[in-house]
């Protein structure tokens, strides 16, 4: 008993406790907010400004759906036939990006969506037509200044818009199997392998969309919101014909995956892009894509390459996913992303800066589709997850509207000491080749904000999914994207009024 009451022991215990509390409070000091780089000079956010058109298309679909397929049958068949002829003409006669004929193609393709949705037997033809029109627009763009605003807007309106119209029709018939859209069979001299029924070649580029909140942010978080969030470079061994994918992951930097492992990682869609065979560098060296892929593979296997959170595409010492392809192709004389991506929104730049991004003129995965040097070989969609994909996009779009209005990314202040200790532990593990809970290059605060953002997006998306299910039961059809966006705005507004602990 005397030993327990020893004052000396209590003094030591009090000193230790006081030191721990002091250390905890010291580690809880947040420090200065990260620097937010200015918006790119040429940056300008795209806006459709066609809400009236979207609502009218929904009204037309409801009318045709109630009237039955017979009322839409003839118009759908005629529209598909007419646009098929137009696609052939577009592939032969060059025209400027602001040609009225291209405006007409967009309007006619959008107008077909409610007819096809009401008459699902035309859905497969509509999907194929979108691929033919995409190829024709890509052919036209070879003569455009794709870094200029006019050409960039046209490519986005057409390629992104056609996909959006197709998916709105597909969502009305989720039981229809249309997961694979084959593109152009561009010839290649490089080694090949067959993956899920598609022949892929060494040097092909895989642009994909992950199923995570941060994937949705990467896809939507730029001046031209898109559908893709990740880039991988294919390598096919010339002897064994085994396919590998070189990619950069936030958690572990540059890594090499087998084709099966790449596909096992959660992906909602994948597009296969290939350099045109008639490009001057490939006419000189048809194996250039394979040499680029081999160079990327060799570097990935020779030592650790950290992930580039700055998104500085000019620095090859660290790589984000787009740089895996652009860096090696650039060394061999092929400059990808002929039109660089821009991120202009003040709120979005503030959020991305909190995650570590420092460069807002960069290489976004979605924008690679618009590069005229590349052709689309194939595109997979996970038809079963298509609605969730749209819900995630709508949730992000609404949250980014909130960011522009001043919404901040909060995290519990008392978690910062633990996060900093986790960062120190990760640093120690990294010194021995291990991987800790906080990725290399990511600060403790960025890790907390990343988690807080993901929790908020899931909170909003879950409520939008519930509201979308109610809409479907009441109206008899799934909500189109503009309705999902309205639902997301409502959920985001509710999030502002909810206690932070409800979504953290």
Approximately how much helix is present in the residues? Answer: 40-55%
- Which percent range describes the beta-strand content? 5-15%
For the record, the count of structural domains works out to: 3
Q: Please list the strands of the largest sheet in the order they lie side by side.
A: 1-11-8-4-5-6-7
Mean of all residue-level pLDDT scores: 90
> How many strands, which pairing sense, and closed or not: the largest β-sheet?
7 strands, antiparallel
Question: Which key phrases capture this entry?
Answer:
504 residues, alpha+beta, endopeptidase fold (from Nostoc punctiforme), 3 domains, seven-stranded antiparallel beta sheet, two-stranded antiparallel ribbon, 16 helices, 51% helix, globular
Topology (SSEs and partners):
Layout: H1 7-27, H2 51-67, H3 69-90, H4 100-118, H5 123-141, H6 149-171, E1 180-182, E2 192-195, E3 198-201, E4 205-210, H7 213-220, E5 230-236, E6 243-249, E7 253-258, H8 259-264, E8 267-275, H9 280-284, H10 288-302, H11 321-331, E9 341-342, H12 346-354, E10 361-362, E11 374-381, H13 386-404, H14 416-431, H15 444-475, H16 481-497
Antiparallel strand pairs: 1-11, 2-3, 4-5, 4-8, 5-6, 6-7, 8-11, 9-10
What would your notes on this structure say?
With 504 residues, this protein is of the alpha+beta class. It is built from 16 helices and 11 strands. The model has no long low-confidence stretch (mean pLDDT 90).
In short:
This protein has 504 residues and is an alpha+beta fold. The chain is built from 16 helices and eleven strands. It has three domains: 51-176; 181-344 and 360-381, endopeptidase fold (from Nostoc punctiforme) (Alpha-Beta Complex); 395-502, no CATH class.
């Amino acid at each position: 008993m005397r030993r327990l009451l020893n004052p000396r022991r209590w003094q030591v215990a009090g000193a230790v406790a006081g030191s721990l509390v002091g250390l905890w409070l010291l580690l809880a000091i947040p420090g200065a907010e990260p620097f937010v780089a200015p918006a790119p000079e040429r940056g300008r956010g795209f806006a459709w400004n066609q809400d009236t058109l979207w609502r009218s298309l929904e009204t037309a679909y409801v009318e045709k759906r109630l009237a039955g397929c017979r009322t839409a049958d003839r118009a759908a068949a005629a529209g598909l036939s007419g646009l098929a002829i137009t696609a052939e003409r577009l592939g032969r006669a060059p025209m400027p990006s602001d040609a009225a004929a291209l405006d007409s193609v967009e309007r006619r393709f959008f107008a077909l969506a409610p007819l096809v949705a009401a008459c699902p037997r035309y859905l497969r033809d509509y999907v194929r037509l979108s691929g033919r029109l995409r190829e024709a627009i890509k052919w036209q763009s070879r003569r455009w200044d794709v870094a200029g605003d006019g050409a960039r807007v046209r490519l986005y309106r057409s390629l992104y818009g056609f996909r959006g119209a197709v998916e709105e029709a597909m969502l009305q018939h989720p039981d229809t199997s249309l997961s694979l859209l084959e593109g152009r069979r561009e010839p290649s001299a490089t080694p090949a392998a067959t993956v899920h029924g598609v022949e892929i070649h060494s040097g092909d580029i895989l642009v994909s969309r992950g199923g995570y909140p941060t994937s949705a942010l990467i896809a939507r978080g730029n001046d031209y919101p898109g559908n893709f969030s990740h880039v991988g470079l294919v390598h096919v061994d010339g002897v064994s014909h085994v396919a590998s994918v070189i990619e950069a992951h936030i958690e572990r930097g540059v890594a090499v995956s087998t084709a099966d492992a790449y596909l096992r990682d959660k992906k909602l869609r994948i597009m296969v892009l290939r350099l045109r065979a008639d490009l001057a560098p490939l006419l000189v060296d048809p194996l250039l894509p394979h040499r680029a892929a081999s160079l990327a593979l060799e570097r990935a296997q020779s030592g650790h390459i950290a992930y580039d959170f700055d998104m500085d595409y000019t620095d090859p010492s660290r790589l984000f996913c787009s740089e895996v392809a652009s860096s090696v192709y650039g060394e061999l004389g092929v400059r990808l992303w002929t039109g660089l991506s821009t991120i202009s929104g003040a709120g979005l730049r503030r959020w991305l800066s909190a995650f570590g991004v420092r460069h807002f003129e960069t290489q976004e995965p979605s924008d690679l589709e618009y590069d005229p040097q590349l052709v689309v070989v194939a595109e997979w969609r996970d038809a079963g997850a298509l609605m969730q994909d749209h819900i995630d996009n709508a949730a992000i779009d609404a949250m980014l509207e909130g960011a522009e209005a001043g919404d901040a990314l909060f995290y519990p202040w008392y978690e910062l000491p633990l996060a900093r200790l986790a960062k120190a532990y990760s640093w120690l593990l990294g010194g021995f080749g291990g991987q800790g809970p906080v990725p290399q290059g990511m600060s403790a605060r960025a890790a907390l904000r990343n988690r807080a953002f993901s929790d908020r997006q899931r909170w909003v998306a879950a409520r939008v999914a519930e509201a979308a299910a109610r809409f479907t039961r009441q109206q008899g059809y799934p909500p189109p994207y503009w309705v999902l966006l309205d639902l997301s705005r409502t959920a985001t507004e509710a999030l502002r009024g909810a206690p932070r602990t409800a979504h953290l």
